[in-house]
Amino acid sequence: MDRIKLDVTYALRRLRSRPTFALMSVVTMALVIGAGSAVLAVVNATLVRPLPFPEAERLVSLYSMPPGETDIAMRNPLHPLDFVRFRSHLRQADAVEAFWARDRALSGEGDPESVPAARVSAGALPLLGGVPLMGRTFTEAEDRAAERLVVLSWGLWQRKFGGRASVIGETIQIDREPFQIIGVLGQSFEPAYIQSELWTPLGIHDGNLPLPGDTYLQTVARLRPGASVQQLDAEVQSLMVEVVKEGPPQTRGWTAHAITFREFQYGTRTPALLILLAASLVLALIACANLANLTLAEVMGRRGELALRAALGAGRGGGERLQVIESLFLAAAGTAAGLLLARITLPTLLALDPGVAKTLPSVGIDWRVQGSAAVLATLVSLAAGLWPLWRGIRGDLAQGVADGGRRTAGARHDRRVGRVLVGAEVALTVVLMVSSALLLSAFQRVSTLNPGFDPRNVLGGQIRLAPNPAATEATRAAFVQQVVERVRALPGVVDAGVTLNSFIPGFFMITTVQIEGRPAPGAAAGYFVQLRRISPGYFKTMRIRQRLGRTFTEQDGTDAPKVAVVSQAFADQFWPGEDPLGRRVHRGTLWFTVIGVVDDVRDVSLSQAEQPTFYLAYAQSNNQTAPISLVVRTAGSPLGVAQAVRAAVFAVDPGQPIDHVLTLEDFLAASAGPERFRGMLLVIFALLALVLSAVGIYGVTARSAGQRTREMGVRLALGAEPSQVWRLIVGEGLRSVIAGMVVGGVAAAGAAALVTRWLPGTQFESPQLMAAAGVLLAIVALAATALPARRVLRADPLAALRSE
């Protein structure tokens, strides 16, 4: 114990005596641990940390797929018939519950507002761990009867009702209907899977089974003990073959599948996160090589001390023990600084992708991240410290004492080792720089894509029409027309219109259509296309170019002939090389005649491929279940008229909320969030790697030049030109850099192929970025080798000779 105390004291004293070495080691570790911990925090929240549900490992999600589709982006919720049949027939699951999430109008206290809501089956909340803080949840009988009961979230209870206990039993207005509050859930129940602030009974069963073709029920099931996801998936697929025979024609040919709850919730993010995790490990290897070079230089300077200590009986183990203690101290300091850096920067990094905040509300630096960071820092520090120490004390100790630790014969070998480490750093840096250029190129491509409309000075706001038994297509169309006219009359407003799209990244609405004279593919009931219900003037407001025919006018009302406008992609797919005007398209129970063709648009996200889109006049096709968005083009700042637009909607209907108000430029920026997040984070990694490589190149070149001081002095004294000496020193340093760039280029090609395979749609479209990365690395390497060479040339040759 006394020896350990002495070793600890001596190790701390040695670190204090070498503040530059200690500071550089801690800073290097902190940068690597800070960057890696930010990625680990997201990976932990998605792939590692247990989901916040009871028996989460047994929870699975059920979903449906259109005929012939395999793309995970086309996963659909279940049809009500699917849910009812699965609930009664599945044997590999002992619970099947569903919910229908949509915003609903909450009124009665203050202005009406849309709140995230969900209609849920009776067992859904208990299955997901929804334990009431006060009151209770629904019974099976109340669910079947669709009783007007509501359970509040803790957040809504606090925000809207002041957290008063008397709220139980009170009546509130939801979609203009009275609902009695029967419970408030605990604060801890905030599952990202159901982003809801209030829950009402679902009311779907055999006796109340809607049979339109819509698929809208998110479904969660719990596996029976001993059952596997694969077994349930096979059972679901088999049962779906029979279920679709009972369903509406629109669901003909659909399939269904089971997937783990974690995979369904976070599966689309997994490839990108694994790439970032691999990048953080590459950065750790670069740091390890960098620290090994620093430690090697420090150990070489103490070779005489180490040899003398060993010769006097300290043994090799004593030096190794001291180095372990130093490494642990450096690892602890680097971990603490890195975790602090991660805590500070994590909110900023997450803000690069607004969607992360919605799906991962509790990303943080928990004990798993802290433990992983500590282990990584310890491994890096020990590997970087012990190997150079072993290099420094191996060999003939007596000779080490005799020559004072200089060992010039071994110095040449040590320089070669340092250059190999630098080459490895450069190679890994090239991999990171090329990968970051690839992802940055993808972000650049997405962010500069033409969305097909002009988003400048356009405000969007969602209107969720509250259900009204007396409402008809005509009354809803009249409401929309009044709102648009009032908004158009506002000062600063250029034009206005409505569309079906909610301008929420990832939201899209598809429908099944049949084309006259063109049979449906395979077993499908028709073709899947995007659906938009719009008002006259929408195309003008959005500045979407009209290619053929005409667009909707006020004369295309409820009683007028049914007409449609299609996108260019729609026309190209179904009538290539033909005139689409006058063609007929069937949807639901009606035939629509094509009267015009407009440009393709990306109104779901910038990364969205151009999809065939079917536009209908809102006056001729609308319902109460789908949201609509008001779009307003302004002469100045769109947000400057936001309050006036709200007031215009309230003036038409005081009970109608308008929410999700944002500029379309912000919407498009948010839609590129995933590309921005992974691209910018990898750029940060690449820049850190570049800095570490520069430090490593400089350190090795400076050490090599220092060890060859006498040789350089002799050369200069014998008449060598300073430029020759400069080229000798710089050339020696650049040889390892060039070798590293060549090896790194080969490895980067493999890494780029892996990235493009894991992230479909990612392709390198900007070779300028790769060229810029290579030039930047070359400039940094040249500067890092030139500075030590310049310092040698400024030294007095005679003084250099006397130094030996």
Count of distinct strands? 21
Beta-strand content: 15-25%
Counting DSSP H or I runs of 4 or more residues, the number of helices is 24
Strand order of the largest sheet: 2-3-8-5-7-6
* Oligomeric state of this protein: single chain
Main sheet summary: 6 strands, mixed, barrel
Shape: globular
Low-confidence stretches: 395-402
The helix content, as a percent range, equals 40-55%
- Mean pLDDT, to the nearest integer, reads 82
End-to-end CA span = 43 Å
Q: Which secondary-structure class do the elements indicate?
A: alpha+beta
Question: From the alpha-carbon coordinates, what is the Rg to the nearest angstrom?
Answer: 34 Å
Structure, explained:
The protein has 804 residues and is an alpha+beta fold. The chain is built from 24 helices and 21 strands. The chain has a 6-stranded mixed beta barrel with strand order 2-3-8-5-7-6. Strands 13-14-19-16-18-17 form a 6-stranded mixed beta barrel. Helix 2 runs antiparallel to helix 9 (270-301). It is globular. The relative contact order is 0.12. The model is unreliable at 395-402 (pLDDT under 50).
Notable features of this structure?
six-stranded mixed β-barrel, alpha+beta, 52% helix, 21 strands, 804 residues, six-stranded mixed barrel, 24 helices
Annotate the secondary structure layout.
Layout: H1 2-17, H2 19-48, E1 59-65, H3 80-89, E2 93-107, E3 113-120, H4 124-127, E4 132-135, H5 140-144, E5 149-152, H6 154-161, E6 171-174, E7 177-185, E8 198-201, E9 218-223, H7 229-246, E10 255-260, H8 261-266, H9 270-301, H10 303-351, H11 354-359, H12 367-393, H13 397-402, H14 408-447, E11 458-463, H15 473-488, E12 493-499, E13 510-515, E14 527-534, H16 538-542, E15 546-549, E16 563-567, H17 568-574, E17 584-587, E18 590-598, E19 613-617, E20 628-634, H18 642-652, E21 659-663, H19 664-671, H20 673-707, H21 709-717, H22 722-758, H23 767-793, H24 797-802
Parallel strand pairs: 3-8, 5-7, 14-19, 16-18
Antiparallel strand pairs: 1-9, 1-10, 2-3, 2-6, 2-9, 4-7, 5-8, 6-7, 11-20, 11-21, 12-20, 13-14, 13-17, 15-18, 16-19, 17-18
